[in-house]
Amino acid sequence: MNTDKLQAALSEYFAPWVQALALRVEPLGADGVTLRLPQSDQLSRVGGMLCGQAMMAAADTAMVLALIRHFGEFRPCTTVQLSSSFLKPLSNQDALVEARVLRAGKTLAFGEIDIRGAADGKSVSRASTTYALL
């Protein structure tokens, strides 16, 4: 699995409004997937703060891509649980959304996501997820 295949999966498997987030797959490390969520006035509140809804959508999307990487192909799945904690505001910078699979069985997969500022590297949100594998 490479970045080009994961980038292509964004347009193949996700709704147009998710594609409108303009997420970009970052170079792959040893584990998981990192997406760049570009700073945008459309996704920001007063003071240039990235809204929580955009962060949660990016987190969910990153985890699906992490599952694609984990399995080597797309497997139909649905989000069962997505729990987010917002640690501090993210303003006037891109977000890096790093997702990794903790465990994937036959019917359930578990993961965690860290969202941090691309410029300062500070963590702004943490999420845990559970997916049903269909």
TrEMBL record:
One Pfam family hit: 4HBT
* Keyword annotations from UniProtKB, A to Z: Hydrolase
Q: What CDD domains does the annotation carry? A: PaaI_thioesterase (cd03443)
Q: Which residues cross the membrane?
A: none
An annotated Gene Ontology molecular function: fatty acyl-CoA hydrolase activity
All copies of domain Thioesterase, residue ranges? 52-117
Is the Hydrolase keyword given for this protein? yes
Does RNA-binding count among this protein's keywords?
Answer: no
Task: Give the superkingdom in one word.
Answer: Bacteria
Please report which protein family the annotation says this sequence is part of.
Belongs to the thioesterase PaaI family.
What PANTHER family does this protein's entry cite? ACYL-COENZYME A THIOESTERASE 13 (PTHR21660:SF1), THIOESTERASE SUPERFAMILY MEMBER-RELATED (PTHR21660)
Q: What is this protein called?
A: PaaI family thioesterase
Lineage, opening ranks: Bacteria, Pseudomonadati, Pseudomonadota, Betaproteobacteria, Burkholderiales
